[in-house]
Amino acid sequence: QVQLVESGGGLVQAGGSLRLSCAASGSIISINDMGWYRQAPGKQRELVATISSGGSTNYADSVKGRFTISRDSAKNTVYLQMNSLKAEDTAVYYCNAIVKLRGVGSSAYEASYWGQGTQVTVSS
User: Fold this and answer.
1) What are residue 88's phi and psi, to 5 degrees?
2) CB 10 within 8 A of CB 18
3) What pLDDT is attached to residue 14?
4) How far apart are CA 124 and CA 36, in angstroms?
5) C-beta atoms surrounding 79 within 10 Å
6) Positive or negative, the Cα torsion across 102, 104, 106, 108?
């Protein structure tokens, strides 16, 4: 129905940069909020950054000033530019999208979808 495909993870030294991408595809009418979350070993999944359809952004305090979220609505794609990476940024990063889909007849509904996750490892 809807797929989110992430790319851009990898291994980087502390102080380096990575750019994550997440492309949504499927029977999509529109996408509301898109975001990035991360989960480190032994920890709960946490919010990294979100961006609304209008471009409003929200960041976790731990990444403010270092990470930038953006989106290309025409491509149903969200990006996460990560600069000044730290060892504590090491985690699996997941993309999330709140997608509006066509329902029965002329109805529509929203549903939340997740990507498969991409590993980011920062060596100190």
Assistant:
1) -75, -5
2) yes
3) 98
4) 23
5) 19
6) negative
The CA distance from 24 to 16, in Å, is: 27
Which amino acid is located at 85 in the chain? L
> What pLDDT score does 105 carry?
85
- Stretches where the chain sits below pLDDT 70 are none
For residue 75, give the 3-state DSSP assignment: helix
Q: What is the pLDDT of residue 103?
A: 84
Q: Does residue 7 contact residue 115 with C-beta atoms inside 8 Å?
A: no
User: Which residues contact residue 93 at a Cβ distance below 8 angstroms, ignoring those fewer than 6 apart?
Assistant: 6, 9, 20, 36, 37, 38, 48, 80, 117, 118, 119, 120
* Helix or strand (DSSP H, E) at 30: strand 28-39
Is the Cα dihedral 94, 97, 98, 99 positive or negative? Answer: negative
Q: How would you class 120 by CB atoms within 10 Å of its CB: exposed for 0-12, middle for 13-18, buried for 19 or more? A: buried
Sign of CA dihedral 65, 47, 39, 68: negative
At position 9, the amino acid (one-letter code) is G
**18 in Cβ contact with 122 (< 8 Å):** no
